[in-house]
Specification:
By secondary structure, the protein is an all-alpha fold. It has 16 helices and no strands.
């Protein structure tokens, strides 16, 4: 029986949601490792730094086609589902679900700010928290309305980029697309330095992402995906309740999405990676990522239905139940490996080497997550957030 004032206990959790969340948090590292190990501009234009030939090119292509924007899309949709699920779990209790949501969100933002300014500028928690403050008001709407508004949100930054490309061409992103070599080397030197030196880049980069970057793009992309996630949860798509036929269609859509993204790669390459073509090129992955993320939903749902108690499902679900902890743990480990206060490998590590590190860390995260949940109810950061949300210490041992 559920505690009226507490979180959802493990036995009542939806395994498919946890497994999807586990896939998402593991997959995010494929792209985040680029920001951990190389200058920020390489995420926008991979040709500006590091070897981009042979296995390093194929490593980039693998990540671009199968990971870039796909797992953050999946994670954002699951965040939207989590808002609805959280509010539903508080119905009929003696505490307001909305007030608890705002309390939980405020603490999420606090943790995200600490993550961004103390550890890594690529934090997504602040953006999620700010979106959640606004989008909770949409949580009770019909799923068709949520999906429609979400699509409008998603169209906004896409149309802005296309209009900028048409009206201004490459001048719209010239400095971002092709930064000066001195700026790239300065960033490398900064992150090979100590923690204090790193603030010179981390603080302004975090602030830019949380202000202009959030208002101009992140709110619309993340917010629209959160709304889609709310709708997909209510439709039973994310919880694995729909027909196998639907999930096979989603899987087929993912294959189509891969084709769209590959077409985009062909387009930018025949244009010699020019800034004039870049804003149009980004649209291929922007929209194709939703199809590929849908394919992942279909694949996980079908596999979970086939092997609900299989070791792979249990492993992904364990990572998903400790996703908050695993997300922050990725930052702690990666910054220790790449930044100057640790091993100082920022810059010289190639793309294929970084991808190899990701695979090793996946194994470590799965082992740690499964082992931890054999003894404890929640991940350590999940436990902390629940304790702060409900205002009293939550039971941790199983």
């Amino acid at each position: 029986m559920t505690d009226e004032t507490g979180p959802t206990p493990p036995p009542e959790r939806i395994v498919s949601l946890d497994a999807l969340r586990g896939v998402a948090v593991l997959g995010i590292l494929v792209i985040n490792v680029r920001l951990f190990s190389m200058p920020e501009a390489t995420l926008t234009n991979p040709t500006v730094y590091g070897d981009f030939t042979g296995v390093n090119y194929w490593s980039w292509l693998f990540g671009h086609v199968l990971a870039e924007l796909k797992f953050i899309t999946l994670f954002s949709a699951l965040f939207g589902a989590g808002i609805v699920l959280f509010l539903e779990s508080k119905r009929g209790t003696d505490r307001s679900g909305v007030l608890l949501h705002y309390r939980r969100t405020a603490w999420l933002i606090v943790i995200g700010l600490a993550h961004a300014y103390l550890l890594w500028y690529g934090d997504i928690l602040v953006a999620y928290g700010l979106c959640a403050l606004v989008l909770v008001s949409f949580s009770g709407w019909k799923p068709s309305t949520q999906a429609g508004i979400g699509l409008v949100f998603l169209l906004f930054p896409s149309l802005l980029e296309v209009l900028a490309g048409v009206s201004m061409g490459g001048d719209a992103i010239a400095g971002q697309w092709q930064p000066a070599e001195a700026a790239l080397q300065s960033e490398v030197a900064t992150y090979r330095g100590g923690w204090i030196e790193q603030l010179d880049h981390r603080v302004p980069a975090s602030f830019a992402r949380q202000t202009g970057g959030f208002i101009g793009q992140t709110f619309w992309r993340v917010g629209g995906t959160v709304l889609l996630g709310m709708a997909m949860y209510k439709w039973g798509v994310l919880s694995g309740e729909r027909s196998s036929r639907l999930y096979r269609w989603l899987l087929a859509g993912g294959v189509v999405g891969i084709g769209v993204i590959l077409l985009g790669v062909w387009y930018i390459e025949i244009n010699d990676w020019s800034a004039d073509a870049a804003l149009f090129w980004r649209q291929f992955n922007y929209w194709g990522s939703f199809l590929v993320a849908g394919g992942y939903i279909g694949a996980v749902a079908l596999y979970t239905r086939w092997r609900p108690d299989g070791p792979l499902v249990r492993a992904f679900a364990a990572v998903g139940r400790t996703a908050f902890t695993n997300y922050l743990l990725q930052t702690v480990v990666a910054t220790t490996v790449f930044y100057g206060h640790g091993l100082g490998l920022f810059g010289p590590v190639s793309r294929v080497e970084a991808l190899g590190m990701v695979v090793v860390f996946w194994v470590i995260q799965v082992v740690l997550s499964v082992g931890w949940l054999r003894r404890f109810r929640f991940g350590p950061v999940e436990w902390l957030l629940r304790t702060l949300t409900y205002g009293h210490r939550q039971p941790l041992p199983r």
